[in-house]
Design brief:
Shape: globular
CATH architecture of the largest domain: 3-Layer(aba) Sandwich
Strand content: 15-25%
CATH class of the largest domain: Alpha Beta
CATH topology of the largest domain: Rossmann fold
Number of domains: 2
Length: 391
């Protein structure tokens, strides 16, 4: 990455609000959940034994086959909303649930008295996975198809590795075998932004970092944080502007305890060896202009899954989105990037549906039509890069 501008653009596709209670009546779950089927209305909320009030949206019949969608860092159910709608249209019989992870969206944060001094101790990937497991237990969901994006993909990995009996299929979108040493997360997100500019500003205000800032927001560190987020964070040239617009105010309201804790929790994750024991059918989705999890990260996860296939006898799949490689700037410029489900929502939904029903994704290729600039996406049936890992 050749400049600060290049670096911010490289990680800009990384965009990842106050809890609104909604009482869920047990007498008619399907009817009650009908009130929270969209990101544009208050979420339903499930109290968990982990101490978290988990917000979620849901479509489909209460007795349908469950599919749970899990978002990425500083994101919310909005991240999966387009693919959720597309998947519901493909198969209205599916019970599709998208959750807000702890401290994200409209879900509650872990208690400040316990977590403010070291937020990362309360935002480990195992903590996030524990919430999803508890949610499934509370909803009497014994087994589900799990799809996770970025940080959410590591949550899916954790559940599949520790509770494989609860996972029918694992879909890992924009992922890797590890986040330890990830330059985007460590250098740009943590060092330059959270523990760089924001920390400096808050300490100048007399705040002890992180203890005094747990329930503050980026706007407390910088009144113009929304402008910075819009220009550098919630931007994706492949996605529709109308879809991206709500992200700026939502991301600006995400508490700093979550920014700090979840970023550090993700950076601590290394599943390189553990993935060799994966025993759940798995699909990896990756885009050619992903500036967070790079081509080398794909080599690592494919190698781990190859070892897992040899042990388990399972077949895993890895699918590529886009056509053009990441440019020299290190930024997504002219094709699909880190947030695949933002721009290629329908193809993502088709791949998820195909994978959970047939065991393999579609062979469709989706990519930009106007290299080296970006115009729109086109789909070429049967021309996708799909690697079969295993027998």
């Amino acid at each position: 990455m050749t400049s600060r501008t290049g670096m911010t653009r490289a990680f800009a596709a990384f965009a990842w609000l106050a809890t609104t209670p909604f009482v869920l009546l047990s007498a008619d779950v399907a009817k009650a959940d009908a009130a929270c089927t969209s990101v544009n209305v208050p979420r339903c909320v499930q109290k968990l034994p982990t101490g978290i009030d988990m917000a979620y949206i849901e479509v489909g019949p209460a007795d349908g086959k469950p599919v749970i969608l899990i978002h990425g860092l500083t994101d919310s159910v909005r991240s999966w909303s387009l693919s959720m709608d597309a998947l519901h249209k493909l198969d209205p019989k599916l019970r599709i649930i998208a959750v807000d992870l702890r401290g994200h969206g409209q879900s509650s944060m872990p208690d400040a008295k316990t977590c403010a001094a070291a937020p990362e101790a309360c935002y480990r990937i195992s903590d996030l996975a524990g919430d999803v497991i508890a949610f499934m237990d509370e909803k009497d969901i014994h087994k589900a198809d799990l799809a996770g994006h970025s940080m959410g993909s590591f949550v899916v990995q954790e559940i599949a590795l520790t509770h494989p009996e609860m996972v029918s299929h694992a879909i890992l979108n924009a992922t890797g075998a590890k986040s330890v040493g990830n330059a985007a997360l460590g250098d740009f997100v943590l060092n330059q932004t959270i523990e760089g500019a924001w920390k400096k500003s808050l300490e100048a205000q007399g705040k002890a970092f992180p203890a005094d800032v747990y329930e503050l927001t980026p706007l407390d560190a910088d009144p113009k944080a929304s402008e910075w987020i819009a220009a550098n964070w919630t931007i994706d040239p492949a996605a529709e502007a109308s879809f991206l617009e709500p992200y700026t105010p939502e991301t600006a309201k995400t508490k700093l305890g979550t920014w700090i804790g979840a970023t550090k929790g993700l950076l601590a994750q290394d599943n390189t060896a553990r993935l060799e024991s994966m025993s759940v059918p798995t699909l990896v989705m990756w885009a050619t202009q992903d500036s967070i999890y790079l081509a080398k990260d794909q080599d690592e996860i494919k190698a781990a899954l190859k070892a897992a296939a040899a042990k388990s006898g399972l077949t895993f799949y890895w699918k590529e989105y886009g056509k053009l490689p990441l440019p020299a700037s290190g930024a997504q410029e002219s094709d699909i990037g880190h947030n695949i489900q933002w721009s290629a929502a329908e193809t993502v939904a088709k791949d998820i549906n195909a994978f959970i029903t047939t065991g393999a994704p579609t062979a469709d290729l989706v990519h930009s039509d106007a290299a080296p600039n970006f115009s729109k996406l086109i789909i070429e049936p049967g021309k996708g890069v799909v690697e079969k890992i295993g027998k």
